[in-house]
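Sample intake sheet
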Amino acid sequence: MDAKAMARIEAHLKSTFANATVNLKARPKQKDSAEVYVGDEFIGVVFEDEDEDGSYMFEMAILAEDLNG
């Protein structure tokens, strides 16, 4: 994933989640994806969509230990 795509996705996520602290970081060994952070906390990964050029998929796990209640 190139820097231009990462910047576009980051801007979209910031707008969608109304959170200016969302940021993407390149993955050194994976060129088709980027890590997503809110501040310093890792929240998921964005992947290039293999089926639709120019589209991306955001994957975020929610662990039982992260849920209150």
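Comment: The chain has a mean pLDDT of 93. Strands lie at 22-27, 30-38, 41-48, 56-59.
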